[in-house]
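Pair request: fold both.
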Amino acid sequence: MLEQSRVVRKLTKDEITDLISEIKLDPKWVKHYDGVTALQDGTTLYLQQFNQDATKLIFSNFKKYPKTHAIIKNIAGDAPLGRCYWHKLMPGDKINRHDDSDQLHVINGSLANRYQIYLKGDDNFLLEMDNAVKSSKDLEFSVVDFALTNTHFYQNNSNQPWVFLVFDVLHKSKS
């Protein structure tokens, strides 16, 4: 696993347009998880869902989001994709401080990378990653190789939604 998160690259103008256009398709945003999780606030739009240890595909909605799928595949290369979802934090929402080292796909070694794409940065979007506060403005329209086993936290102190894409890339031999 990564010791520190890192920006892989900035999105192109076309990628930004494609991602924004597809999340505006009147999607069904749902609660992230019915059990106890750090993501109690906000809603999730699942593009692809796996079981807890990333060994069985539950469903994929990529046919509805082909441009997003193409962007994700471009980043992942020929490695298999795991769970992929958009998360939206409304004003006042937060994701509690946590790390993801206890997730089964981390423990069993099937996860190669977790990427996050932040569509917009704002001085009122509080982001803590790698145990330090980061500027969400610096990560705007960026693909981040996310060190998920380090502590992270999100707080939307703005008056607008904060939306970001999260997707897991699995090891070829573990898929």
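--- second member of the pair ---
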Amino acid sequence: MSNDVPKMVECRPLSERMKHLLPVAYLPEQKARELADLGDVEIVGEEASKTETPTPIQVDIGYLKRDRFSKYRQLTRVAWVQDMSRMGGAELSNCVVVNAGEQCGFDIIGVTPARFSEDILYTCDLIVLNNCMEFQPEQFHRLRYHLHERAIPFVKYEHDYREFKRTNVSQPFFTRSMLNVFLSPKHMERHAKIFGEEIVERSAVLPLAIDTNLFTSGIGVDREEDLVLVPNYKKCGKRIDEYMLAHKEYRYAVIGQVPQLPGTVEHLPKVPNDQMPKYYSRCAKMLHLPVDYWAGERIYFEAALCGCTPVVDTEHVGHASWLLDVSDTASLKATLDRAPYTFWREVDACLSKL
């Protein structure tokens, strides 16, 4: 699906009703020309190539607070369905992708268990179905009604492997969607084995959306060449213990509450996401050896962007299956910056075929 996607055009919003866009927005070419004809935007840049990198965006959760779509119907109305009990990796990624979609001219409102709205689901043009494990039974029933009985076009944007636990329910999510989006080649491969190889034909693979402006090595922190960061011991357990016993030449900085560990260990409290760059920049390596399979693992790319070498299990860390040269931070940053915009290009390409 990714071989024929619309080009993006750099635009400047002109009208009051387009003020939600940033000073410069990247819109699909056809949508940009329609809005330009209406006097809503001015096309100021050449058509962007498929390899060009738009300016990265800042995370904004405004879409989770809105309760109605714009009254102007030129914008595609998107109901973004997701769990929201915490601000974890998937939720941070959602914010980045939604912010990119708003730049691209989509009208997006979050639908969560706490802010469940039938009005939004009835009036949307498209549903993006993200993680949806926390909805109440009646909410989930109504959601499936809109997806399957009303047949609202929808995208399944998958962030983990939890749908494997209820395949009788989730099979139609992947086989009836107009597009499935996975975080890594390994992530898509494992889903294809469960839900059928035919889902690959309607799928795209994009790395987890990351705010690359935040994760950078140039923050004035001295790197300690014998220090290894362990950001998520809980997922790894005894595999970290075994590594520490085999590599006593290193010191280890371990985040969160952990048991007594072998070797020289610096215990760190839970670190907010926006403070992680200074720890990545301080450590020479980032150690992550999870016991279970994970779709992506944002810490793999976050560490690399900060010049911290990831030491990972390539079978269990999905992002490692991209086989990227993560030591080339400039190229990695460009790849990750493109991903949220590529998501919306894929979506727009699917909508244009309806």
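Observation on the second member. The chain has two domains: 8-209+338-351, 224-334.
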